[in-house]
């Protein structure tokens, strides 16, 4: 994997997949033009359609356009070739629920009371969720005159009071837990988990294919109206089941996942490629219906891969604050608006998607409501992000992390000793801590990290302590 932050101020546009035709350090005036152009809303399309596609546990190196040599993902590769690929894009959390809360609200998930996973077990925090009082992008975009739909994984509350239809989605087909059997649609506890709006209503089919089919139907139905579509695929989260594998889970029982030798890598490939095929169908439908020139599509993963996936040269996996836990593949696509064959190396995050969508759709954030993300507009238009020394933060369990440009600090509240400091532009695999030679920088970053964590907890939404 050659993607790193060595060129944090550089945006590369390729004439072809095989050769670099231009490597340009974008000067300040080009950035200024891009910023003003985007913030002024000067686009060829008024009220474009917007689609957000999220994979589940897909690693930084799981797509062939991000270096996977084991199997191909031709449709996502084509999406990247026709659009913009982000190399330093991060999820706001290293696991499912937190990242999804951050994506929908444009704010660090700690503010909405979802710093960790919402588990399926009855004796866990299953009763927690994203309260309807939280302001989400589908709610605001719906208010701007859009049709809104969500298909796939919610994972922001099992109770009906947290249902996606209470957060601005007019249509919802999918599941509310962290994962379900791809065929029987039962969650880890043996509870049927396939919904139509606010009611459980099962339908036969492989979840990845069902999500794609509902998305295609939604686009066809709303092709004459501006729409906002959120696709949250289950792939390639466990259980590891390809389209032709048998069901594992049954009603009313907790059934452990058991796999035959060689099943996981084979199923993993099929799961990713089935999702890739579905995304290809969606992009092709947009072209067939002549919607591609007025539809913005953004693809990302909710966190890094676990040990069954690929995170390239990154250290760590899902659930960690090493780069492998939260640096994820991301692609933006919008023919005629986003230049093709481009790569953005600037530090960006899933929290940035909401402000980007709001600017595109003309939706308005309520007065006094603060978003933590920033618009990706300058990058989409072929420029760079305005703050090249941007500061981003993570917290999961006892662990804390901070980025300031190419510098990264890691701290664990449970473990004594010094934090770790890495210069990612020279050490993308986080192997050599520079704390001893850059103590002042590390202490300054640690102070900022502590201040950030204290600030996001001020006024944070309270979750009930008892089921």
Characterization of the model:
The chain has 467 residues and is of the alpha/beta class. The protein has 2 domains: 10-388, Alkaline Phosphatase, subunit A (3-Layer(aba) Sandwich), CATH 3.40.720; 392-456, Arylsulfatase, C-terminal domain. The chain is 24% helix and 17% strand. It has 10 helices and 18 strands. It has helices at residues 28-39, 74-81, 96-105, 137-143, 207-221, 263-288, 323-326, 353-361, 377-380, 439-456; strands at 10-13, 22-25, 49-55, 84-86, 89-90, 147-153, 171-175, 195-196, 199-200, 227-232, 295-301, 330-333, 342-344, 348-349, 391-396, 399-404, 407-412, 420-423. Strands 2-1-13-4-12-11-3-10-6-7-8-9 form a 12-stranded mixed beta sheet, sandwiched between helices. A hairpin with a 7-residue loop joins strand 17 and strand 18 (420-423). The chain is globular and about 60 Å long. The chain starts with 9 loop residues before the first strand and ends in an 11-residue tail after the last helix. Residues 1-10 and 14-41 have low confidence and may be disordered.
């Amino acid at each position: 994997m050659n993607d790193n932050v060595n060129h944090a101020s550089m945006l590369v546009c390729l004439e072809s997949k095989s050769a670099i035709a231009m490597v340009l350090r974008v000067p300040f005036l080009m950035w200024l033009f891009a910023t003003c152009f985007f913030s002024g809303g000067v686009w060829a399309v008024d009220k474009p359609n917007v689609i957000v596609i999220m994979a589940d546990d897909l690693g930084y190196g799981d797509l062939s356009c991000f270096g996977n040599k084991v199997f191909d993902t031709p449709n996502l590769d084509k999406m990247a070739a026709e659009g913009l690929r982000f190399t330093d894009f991060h999820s706001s959390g290293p696991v499912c629920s937190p990242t999804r809360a951050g994506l929908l609200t444009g704010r660090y998930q700690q503010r909405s009371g979802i710093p960790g996973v919402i588990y399926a077990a009855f004796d866990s925090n299953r009763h927690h969720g994203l309260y309807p009082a939280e302001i989400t992008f589908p709610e605001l975009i719906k208010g701007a005159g859009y049709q809104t739909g969500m298909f796939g994984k919610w994972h922001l509350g099992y109770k009906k009071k947290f249902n996606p239809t209470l957060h601005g989605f007019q249509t919802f087909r999918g599941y509310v837990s962290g994962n379900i059997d791809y065929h029987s649609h039962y969650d880890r506890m043996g509870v049927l988990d396939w919904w139509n709006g606010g009611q459980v209503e099962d339908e036969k089919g492989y979840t990845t294919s069902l999500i794609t089919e509902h998305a295609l139907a939604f686009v066809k139905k709303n092709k004459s109206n501006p729409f906002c579509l959120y696709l949250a695929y289950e792939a390639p989260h466990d259980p590891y089941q390809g389209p032709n594998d048998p069901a594992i889970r049954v009603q009313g029982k907790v059934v452990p996942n058991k796999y035959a030798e060689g099943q996981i890598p084979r199923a993993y490939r099929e799961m990713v490629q089935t999702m890739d095929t579905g995304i290809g169908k969606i992009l092709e439908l947009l072209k067939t219906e002549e919607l591609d020139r007025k539809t913005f599509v953004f693809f990302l993963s909710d966190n890094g891969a676990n040990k069954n996936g690929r995170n390239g040269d990154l250290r760590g996996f899902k659930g960690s604050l090493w780069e492998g836990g939260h640096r994820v593949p991301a692609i933006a696509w919008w023919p005629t608006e986003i230049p093709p064959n481009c790569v953005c190396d600037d530090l960006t995050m899933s929290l940035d998607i909401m402000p980007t969508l709001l600017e595109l759709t003309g939706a308005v954030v309520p007065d006094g409501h603060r978003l933590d993300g920033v618009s990706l507009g300058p990058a989409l238009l072929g420029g760079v992000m305005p703050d090249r020394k941007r500061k981003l933060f993570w917290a999961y369990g006892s662990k804390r992390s901070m980025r300031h440009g190419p510098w990264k600090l890691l701290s664990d509240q449970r473990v004594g000793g010094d934090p770790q400091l890495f210069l990612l532009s020279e050490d993308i695999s986080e192997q050599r801590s520079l704390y001893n030679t850059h103590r002042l920088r590390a202490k300054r970053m640690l102070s900022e990290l502590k201040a950030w964590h204290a600030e996001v907890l001020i006024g944070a939404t309270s979750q009930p302590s008892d089921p």
